[in-house]
Design a protein that fits this description.
Largest sheet: 4 strands, antiparallel
Distance between the termini: 71 Å
Radius of gyration: 24 Å
Number of helices: 1
Helix content: 25-40%
């Protein structure tokens, strides 16, 4: 009986430690909850790297950001127009 009690205690401690570790690893994302627009409409929210970013205009019902691609030029974020053409794949 003692052996099973020791196994159960180790199992419970492992579950508790795993839960605490997972809780500590979650990311604290600064986005609004799904379905809500950002609070300040004057300053657009931009998810960016150094010179290219994504301006969030709104959020879909499932929490997906909707917006446009922007580039950082002369201290301002400027909208871009993507251009290109569709070419068929070569079938060799």
């Amino acid at each position: 009986m003692r052996k099973w009690l020791a196994v159960a205690c180790v199992w419970i401690l492992t579950l508790l430690a795993t839960g605490l570790w997972v809780h500590a690893q979650r990311r604290n994302v600064p986005f609004p909850p799904p379905g809500q627009a950002p609070g300040n409409e004057e300053i657009p929210q931009i998810i960016s790297g150094n010179d290219i970013g994504f301006r969030v205009d709104s959020w879909s019902k499932d929490g997906t950001p909707i917006g446009r691609i922007v580039v950082h030029q002369e201290g301002k974020w400027i909208d871009v127009t993507l251009s290109g053409r569709v070419r068929p794949l070569a079938t060799n």
